[in-house]
Amino acid sequence: MVKVFISYSHNDEADRNELEKHLSVLRRQKLIEPWNDRRILAGVNLGNEIDKKLTESDLILLLVSPDFLASEYCYSKEMEKALQMRREEIAWVIPIILEYCDWKNTPLKDLRACPKDGQPISEYPNPNKAFQEVVEDIREVIDKIRAERADACETAPKEVSAKGDLKLQPVFVDDVRSSNLRIKKGFTDYERDSFKKEAFEYIRKFFKNSLDELKKRNPDIEYIFEKEANKFYATVYRSGCEIASCSVINRVGNDSWRGITYSRSKQDNSVSSLLTVQDDGYSLFLAPTLMMANSNEPLSQRGAAELYWNRFIEPLQQ
Fold first, then answer.
1. What does the CA dihedral 108, 96, 179, 195 come to, rounded to 10 degrees?
2. DSSP code, position 79
3. pTM above 0.70, yes or no
4. Which of 27, 51, 91, 101 could form a disulfide with 66 if both were Cys (CB 3.0 to 4.6 A apart)?
5. How many Å apart are CA 61 and CA 64, to the nearest integer?
6. Cα 229 to chain center, whole Å?
7. Residues 224-247: pLDDT tens digits?
8. 98 and 65 in contact (C-beta within 8 Å)?
9. What is the DSSP secondary-structure string of 86-126?
10. What residues contact residue 26 under an 8 Å CB cut-off, 6+ apart?
């Protein structure tokens, strides 16, 4: 099996968990043996064990984010050691870009990052698509590593047993295939509605967390946040005076809007913006409509949340 070392900031642990979930098929096929520092047993010296596992690895995955670059341990110890191993042709190194950060001004700039074109996973309308692209790249590298091992076995000197028989080194013989296996598909109403519900929950949490931080940074700010099954309302006050208000609704059933709507009031029939679920034949995403800039431009959950939040906070910034 290919030994895989995952280098990451603990602030990105959720992304590491998601990556390992997408690597589960490779693990079940016994093609990889992934490792991260959460597998270190109590009482074991952290630095020694990490260095040991890193040195033994065949493939090193660097989960790159602002937190990763800011971490002295991730950057100066794990990343620099990984790049040294790559220069010595001991191991492969793959940077995986989680969030926008200044990685192109680091030694990683010379490596082909993934997902495709180094686009951050956080910016994909459907993060599963981004992780699948990462897995496809990893699978190609694993195929390469295994092929190199097979060549080495074929050319290695033959050993002679005690009986004088030749002992041949094992040769890896596995089916090889292309990693370009994506085909277009149709999406059911259930898949679209589930995606929309997940996006709405993300936007709701995004608003609540942003309101908490806004109040924390500004002592004169107060807010009211109310939530129901498929809608939430937010009102911001400065020095006791209402400054901004909005309602965001996940339209379900036979609602004519059939999307996630935004309004500057609590009136359900007052809609100023609309996000609808669209697809490109490969994945689902959100697209803005109704007098909004960049209409039909694909948006991730975060992109959609930022779009609505920017509309909401605009009165406070004027």
1. -150
2. I
3. no
4. 101
5. 9
6. 27
7. 999 998 999 999 999 999 999 999
8. yes
9. HHTTS-EEEEEE-S--SGGGSGGGGS--BTGGG--GGGSSS
10. 32, 135, 138, 139, 142
